Description:
Elements: H1 2-32, H2 39-57, H3 63-69, H4 72-89, H5 97-119, H6 128-132, E1 135-138, E2 141-144, H7 145-167, H8 169-179, H9 181-186, H10 191-213, H11 223-238, H12 243-263, H13 268-282
Antiparallel strand pairs: 1-2
Amino acid sequence: MDFFFIHLLNALLSAATLFLIAGGLSLIYGVMRIVNLAHGNIYAFGAYVTAWALGRLVAGTPTPVLYLVLPAGAVGAALLGSVLEPTLLRPFYKRAEEYQLLVTFGLLMILGDVMHFVWGPYPLSASALWENSGSLSIAGNPYPNYNLVVIAIGGFAAAFLWAFVYKTRFGIVLRATSQNMRMASALGVNVNRVYVQAFTLGCFMAGLGGAIIAPSQSAVLDMGVDALVLSFIVVVIGGLGSLEGALVGALIVGVVREAGIAWFPEIELAVLYLMAAIVLLVRPAGLFGRAS
């Protein structure tokens, strides 16, 4: 029973990070109808910024200071998103979807090269926060307290995002723009401003996912592509454009990944791909998506 509890915590840990990445991806698609392939490396950018800040900028400072600096990657990713949307993405909104996919794929490659240039080819680690946070004992086995913090951040982010989208005036404008951009524009909504805000928020979520994972895992160049693949599985299962779908999809993928790592590690990813394929066959819009 105790080992089951540890596996459950590990599944929630994986789901917390996946929700932040996939939720940002879904938010951007839901509002702007863009499949942002660069999202994976925006997540990696957040991890690199936080790893650099914790490991170089404030290294050796007390643990509370490290926690205060932890969101640096999310802020950096949000700033990056606020620059990318109006300069590189906006000119392609009236082009065919193929152009949008190509430009976001190009951004994925460019961001990878930028991180390589700035931080070099070697992993960037910042494990002091993870080590200083200590651990608790479950069934005689130590379990890192920092992992519980990550799970709590994921839960708080999900609740905050739900309240932000469904209980605020900006959320109403956001949903109105996503449902009918032309009608919203005719009613006086500044669509360009809504787009840059939605893209910035989506990038903030991806960057936060990278930031909270940096202390327990080193920031590496390929982490963005791996995260992008898993986040696409999440949104395929949950429904692209649906935040509820991103949450449920992340929980499903988190549980299946943990079960796969524990009992069938050789075919862990194959099971996830099979699940995504079955959902596409039975319900192409995903569990919570709406058919267009």
